[in-house]
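This part of the workshop introduces the protein records we will be handling. The question running through the whole workshop is how a given chain folds. To make this concrete, we reproduce a full record directly below:
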Amino acid sequence: MIKALISKLNRNQDGSILPIFAGMVLVLVVIGGAAIDISRSVNAREKLAYAIDAAALSVATDLSTSALSDAQIKQRIENSFRANLADAEFLDQAIENLSFVIDDDEGTVTVTSFAGLNNYFVNIGGLGKDLLGPDAFNFGTNARVNYSRFDVELALIVDVTGSMRGDMPALREASTDVVNILLPEDQDQSEAKVRISLVPYSTGVNLGVYADVVKGGAYGFADSSDCVTERQDYDDGTELYDVKYTDSAYNYYTKSNPPPKATFYGDGSNDGCSSDSVMIPLTDDRDELIDAIEDLEADGWTAGHTGAIWGWNVLSPNYANLWPAASVPAAYNDDNILKFAIMMTDGDNNRAFDLPLTEYKKVGEENCRWVWRNGGWRWRCDDIYDWVDIPESELEWEVNSDTGEGYSNEASVRHRAYCTAMKDAGIEVFGVYFGSNNSSTGARNMQNCASSGNYYQASSSEGLKQAFSNIAKKIQSIYLSR
């Protein structure tokens, strides 16, 4: 009897399907709504991740070329967010929760942010929150990008000899391109990470206001010319100072006051030096550089080694007390600095400079040189001294105009020696030969001077501009990629 009643109850389902169906529909709606909300959150996170990647890359690029404050970095990230999340409902949250970390040692920038979306469907009927979780989904992400932590110091060493007279417009344009690439016009000068020095050379280098100092003007050795050449090794009778192929300071000699005149740099004005082509020490002032480039004029003979030594000196920390504070070169061991030189010529070296008094040398003697000893010049051969009664104040540097134009002449030998010393000091050198004969002395000198893979030949005005532009872009890629 009881079994029959239970069996009948089990078979009687009238009216029970509707509430079961309703419950199932509600659960399905909640699950479907949850799927939609989760999908929205996933899409939002992807949009945020894209925006963070774009912002980090943008800031890394800016940091590679500019020195930025934290406030400037934050503003640039926010600007990038607004551009890439303009239609996102979580934009304000993402900006409010924005953070970044700059690691100067590693050269990285890390950008982080998070936001949330209200769940429109999950909480239908008040069941979603209890069954499936919170009424909002939070999401966040970060991006870490490398940037170049290097600053750049560049010496632009250009040939302004008489043979360049017809090609000066091309040289000016090519040099301006270098400035425009490495110091863009739209960049705030205070943010620049590149400093450029302009070093025009011919018979010598026009050092402008700095010429008097390096020629010993403080000790009465001044002259009326701004043209400066090189210097020689000096022997005071007790010690030989090997300074000829070094970047030792111009005032290296300290044993006497005043120092001997021959310890300072020489004067090349007696054989021509471009009065309009003035050297500019390291600067991030693009207007100053471009004005100086526009003033370049051709004059004089070719002493490429004088351009090399002064291109080296503007990059040398040993000359920190010569230049203004804003132009002081960094130390060679500063791991945050890259030093470059672009060296250009259109011809063969044919001028070199030597110490005076060559007309007094005695023929046939061995191991002889002029020595300043006990207040006067002596002609020293081995250990034997002969007095020469010539006052220090009357000494003049003389141009040796008989070097010829061969690869083994004195001027070219010195030129290559300076280039080797520059490279040994850690300066990466680019050599540009402006001419059609790639086997000429000038071309071979530039090939030898250039660091590996850094030689360029330009046989036309357009080629010269292209070579300078390519070098500037290569320098840019080097310091951006390290």
Q: What stands out?
A: The first strand starts at residue 99 and ends at 103. Confidence is low (pLDDT under 50) at residues 357-364. DSSP finds twelve helices and 18 strands in the chain. Residues 362-394 form one domain.
